[in-house]
Design brief:
CATH class of one domain: Mainly Alpha
CATH topology of one domain: Arc Repressor Mutant, subunit A
Number of helices: 7
Number of strands: 0
CATH architecture of one domain: Orthogonal Bundle
Strand content: under 5%
Helix content: 40-55%
Radius of gyration: 23 Å
Largest sheet: none
């Protein structure tokens, strides 16, 4: 399996609603036949939508399409993850240079967590406290 690529915004916006509805139903574990019964169409019609869906996502199988849809943020209701830490990490996972909005989101994320450090741990996971007899 090659590295996943995210479909461009044009491909997502121009694609029919049924393609993404099919992706969501497949992610729930439904079969092509179950989707056909739900929509009231022939299974062959749903297979055409599935082929189109795989083409948009660059997937070889329906399972891979679901995986790529999850990674692209399509299945969580957000088609693109930009301007936050998750968007920055998504760019990096895909081997892309993060966009300026995601770089800004990553800077904000790091500044929020910069001062937070875990206290050192002693035996059995208990936080260590400074020894009163330890030299300063």
């Amino acid at each position: 399996m090659t590295a996943p690529t995210r479909p461009g915004p044009a491909a997502l916006d121009e694609s029919p609603r049924r393609v993404w509805e099919l992706l969501a139903l497949l992610s729930e574990g439904r079969t092509i036949e179950q989707v056909a019964a739900k929509w009231g169409v022939q299974a062959g019609t749903v297979r055409v939508y599935a082929e189109r869906m795989r083409s948009y996502l660059g997937a070889d199988t329906n399972a891979q399409a679901v995986l790529l849809g999850c990674q692209a943020g399509i299945l969580d209701g957000r088609r693109q993850r930009h301007g936050d830490h998750a968007g920055y990490e998504a760019h990096r996972r895909r081997g892309e240079t993060p966009c300026e909005a995601c770089k800004g989101g990553e800077r904000a994320h790091r500044s929020r967590y910069k001062g937070r450090q875990k206290p050192p741990e002693g035996p059995a996971g208990a936080p260590q406290s400074p020894s009163p007899t330890a030299p300063l």
